[in-house]
Design a protein that fits this description.
Layout lengths: L2 H14 L2 H8 L3 H15 L4 E4 L2 E4 L1 H25 L7 E7 L1 H7 L4 H7 L3 E7 L13 E6 L7 E7 L2 E5 L1 H7 L14 E3 L6 E6 L12 E4 L4 E3 L2 H9 L5 E4 H9 L4 E3 L3 E4 L6 E6 L7 H14 L16
Parallel strand pairs: 3-4, 3-5, 8-11
Antiparallel strand pairs: 1-2, 5-15, 6-15, 7-12, 7-13, 9-10, 9-14
Helix pairs in contact: 1-2, 1-3, 1-4, 2-3
């Protein structure tokens, strides 16, 4: 058995859910695909597919084997690509996923410049607010925001992820402006469903090296409106419906235009105790492909340090 060809046939069949479609994709006979799968199942001692008139469905063993087989195939593909393109520019199809709101504002606008710099890279953009399995979704690189969980994935910090408390001028005219974090408990707060709970944590900006006793200050909030979309929370805040804790990459335009006001600038606000960031995440590989490295380096350079969306905001720590 050609094990390499058999594994490729299995992965392709798992995606297309059909031996005949897999045969067309790989330009071989359907009987060859069937033989490959039968030999793999005999070698592994387990059924990989449940077969029905509706198509192929992976068994539990098939799902496990597919996950690990795709890692191995990606590693072999990367080895071939990296070795064969040592003296070439980055090339190939790059599949990228990112949160929708961040992607619209800070990834898509810079794509023309990226594609001009790297004319041999084709892009497949997947906007998704849920966390995709990079291996199963065949993602080359993901932009993720927040605190990364422990995992086998590789990651590079692209930029800080800062949140600020803000509200519209009309809201503050009606309700007054909070002077310290404790005052927020008396205000109507717009809540984001994606946050773990209705608690915000505050650290003074001038605490460059906070002491252990300077733990983030938690403030319990209340509010009548909750939404699962950050753009919706932004628009509600601009409309004067309450205070919001918004990322600077989302709120910076409204702040510069005066539609929102930044309050408590001497405090850094978070949705949890750990410090979040904006990350580039990619599957674990010994060698990062040149197209992934090109994308990550380009956007790290484009975002800048501090990131361009924080220009003019009061975030510089005092010495």
């Amino acid at each position: 058995m050609d094990y390499f060809a058999a594994v490729r046939a299995f992965v392709c069949a798992a995606e297309l859910r059909s031996f005949s479609k897999t045969a067309l994709e790989m330009a071989v006979k359907t009987s060859t695909i069937s033989r490959y799968i039968s030999e793999l199942e005999k070698d592994l001692g387990i059924a990989l597919f449940n077969r029905s008139t509706r198509g192929l469905v992976l068994t539990e063993g098939g799902r496990l084997f597919r996950e690990h087989a795709m890692i191995a195939l990606h590693a072999l593909d990367d080895a071939r690509q990296v070795t064969s393109s040592l003296n070439l520019t980055p090339q190939g199809v790059l599949r990228v996923t990112m949160p929708s709101a961040f992607g619209r504002r800070h990834v898509v606008p810079h794509l023309p410049a990226f594609m001009s710099r790297y004319p041999d890279i084709d892009l497949d953009i997947v906007s998704a607010d849920e966390t995709l399995n990079l291996i199963e979704a065949r993602i080359d690189v993901a932009i993720r925001i927040g605190v990364l969980p422990d995992s086998s994935l590789m990651a590079r910090r692209m930029a800080p992820h800062r949140r600020i408390v803000c509200g519209s001028p009309a809201y503050f005219e009606r309700n007054g402006m909070p002077r310290n974090p404790e005052d927020l408990a008396a205000h109507n707060v717009l809540r984001l469903s994606l946050m773990p709970d209705d608690t915000w944590f505050f650290i003074r900006v001038d605490d460059v090296h906070p002491l252990p006793e300077h733990e983030p200050m938690p403030v319990q909030l209340r509010g009548r409106l909750r939404a699962d979309d950050s753009d919706a929370v932004l628009e509600l805040a601009i409309a004067g419906c309450g205070l919001a804790l918004l990322p600077t990459w989302l709120a910076s335009t409204a702040l510069c235009e005066g539609r929102l006001l930044h309050v408590l600038p001497e405090w850094e606000a978070r949705t949890g105790r750990a410090e979040p960031a904006i990350w580039a995440v990619y599957p674990p590989k010994k060698i990062v492909s040149s197209k992934v490295r090109a994308f990550v380096d380009f956007y790290a350079e484009t975002f800048g340090e501090p990131p361009y969306w924080d220009a003019g905001l009061a975030f510089e720590r005092n010495p």
